[in-house]
Structures are given as C-alpha cells and as structure tokens.
Amino acid sequence: MRVLLTGVTGLIGAELAKRLCLQGHTVVGLSRRDAHHLFSGPSEPFAHSYVDGYDRDAIRLLRGDVAEPSLGVSDDVYRQLAEQTDLIVHAAAITEFGQPPAAYERVNVGGTQQILRMATGGRKIPVLYVSTAYVCGFLRGKVSEDKLHLPQRFGNAYEKSKFLAESYVRAEALSGLPSIIVRPSIVVGASNDGHIREFKNIYPALKVLTSGKVTTIPGQPAATLDLVPWDYVCDIITGILAAPERSYGLTFHAVGRQPLTLQDFSDVIAEYPSLRIPRFVPPESFVLDALPPVEQRYYRRLVSVYESYFVRQLEFSYENTRQLMGGHRPPAVKPFLRKVLNHCMSVGFLNASEAAVAE
Known about the structure:
two-stranded parallel sheet, globular, 16% strand
C-alpha cells in the first residue's frame, strides 16, 4: 500500500515508518519538523530500533501541518496525496501534558478533522487513528475497546481533545469510512531494555517525584497506571496493517499486561536506594498549602497535570488486541518498570542534577 503517515518524527511514527517499509509498503511521512536525521543510515541518532535493513528509498518525507488546510502542503501535492494514498495512519498529536487547551484543539482535534476531510473528499481512504486509552476519562471499572463512553469529566485537556477527535473518526465510520482505532495507554520504554528516544510525557513527573522535589501527593495505593512499551504499540499497528480490511470498524487497546498499582510502583522504587518514594495521601486529605513553597511550585507546574492518574482505578479490556496478537503480550509490569528505571539511571536521566522550577 501507499501509506500517508502523520507524526513521522514521533516515538511511534519513526519506528512505524521503518516497519511499514519492511512490510512492502511505500510511506509518505508528514511532519512539521525535519525528519531526515531519523532515516539517514547506520549513524541515525537514537538508532535504537527493532528494524534493520528497511528500504530508506521507500520513505518520502514531507513537511506539512495536519492542522492547516490541505495539511500545509501545496494544492498539487495535496491532490496527489488524495489520489494516490491507499491508507492513512494518523499518529500526529500534541501528547505533552500541561499545554494550553487551544493547542490541543488546533492539532489533536482540528488536525484529525483535516485528515478526515482528505479521507472523505473523494474516494474513501481508510484511516487508522492513534487515539489514547484514556479517552475514558474518570470512568470506573473495566473499559471496553469498541465503545466510546461519554465520561463525566476528563483528567486533562489532552484526554478531552483525543475523545473529541476519536468521536469524529467514529462518526465518519458510521457514514461508511473504513477506519481502525488504536488506543495506547501510557507509552514508555522498550520491552527488552526500557530504552526510549525522548524523556517526555510521564517521564518528567517520574523524575521530580523520585528525586524528592515533591514528597507528598494525592493518590490511592489501589490506583492504577497502565504502562505500555512503545515497541508493543508498533507491533499492534503493524499487525493490523498486514491485513487492514480485517480490522475495519474495530478498536484495539494497546495496553500493558496488567495495570500497575501505586503500591506496586512504590514497592519497585523502594528497591533503588538513590530514589525517593513519594508519600501518597487520600485526595481529600491533601493540602497543597501545607507543602514547602518550593514543593508547591514544582507541584503546580508539573505534578498537578498528572494528578488524575494517581487516583483512577481503571482496567482496559483487550479482546480485539488479544485475538490479533495471539500469545504475543507485553512484559509483566514490575520487571518491566525495573527495566524502565534502569535505563533512566544508566543514561543519567534519573540521579542527574535537577532542573530549576522555571525550567
């Protein structure tokens, strides 16, 4: 197939482009940033990958912006893409927490609308949309794959934007657009050794908490974090795209083997003498003003945007994913968390000098 892949510079996108080439597809990678350094040869920076020997000539890199009309490319290029693309993998999104709501609205929601406009503008182009498992917001209990529940509230503006974007994809699916939705949970390091290209998303919060910059946070010991290796997310997507017509209309949870409770998290952190264990207190007992002033600043700037993940108790069903992947499952959660922490320490991300509050 000729695949249009948005977000090709992202953690998932760059790896996915290489894997799709190995499957025999031709990839057009769209990104706001230059991506040539990610596909430049054996000396690729951050070259940790499970892919070797892919055809670099099968990847065409294109500068553009999913949130702009015509995806930010010329009319001629846009028309060519619309005519020649066999399938769109839409992975571009702002995933960092704490950004202004308008930024999520523009890129995550508006960008998805622009992709759907191309997909439905003439002949229908199938779309695989990379959402998030946390579109469920504050729902309790087990979250199904195929339903998009309307939660009472979301944990942050990122979740809300992905919910809205997924709702647009589902609406077009009801009108006949062949579509597939993949919902990763909290994407972290590689399955075998915890390696990750960029320490983004939950990693800054992990750094602040284990360094003792914030010693007390609201949380429940039974609350769950669902951590999934980035390579397993790519395994799921490439597994789907081996025969995408079998998956049209389905949603796949790309999640960990089982949820990691805050108690599990604390137990593993305790194995590392140089790391601090934050004290979790019931949310109703947490008083921000009782913390020292410096801790209050770190909390407001960073920890607060992750606060909802320390109080929710969620379990994600993965029946569609299980049928797709068979016996291939992500690693057990505690050993995997140790790999993530070991990598962070080996490269100096943890135990390094801490950034100032403003940084």
